[in-house]
Amino acid sequence: MESKLKYALELLSQDVLKALSGFSELEEADEIRLRLSRRLCVSLKDKDCVLDYICTQADIEHSFKTAFSYSMHSYSRELSQGYITTRGGNRVGISGTAVISQGGEGIEAVKYITSLNVRIAREIIGCADEIVSECFKSGPEGLIIAGPPGSGKTTLLRDISRQLGARYKISLIDERGEISSAHKGSAQNGVGEMTDIFYGYPKAIGIETAVRVMTPRALIVDEIGSESDGKALSYAVNSGVKIITAVHAGNLSEAMKKTAIRSLYESGAFGFSAELDSSRRAAVKRLD
Question: Per-domain residue ranges for the chain?
Answer without folding.
Answer: 2-119, 129-286
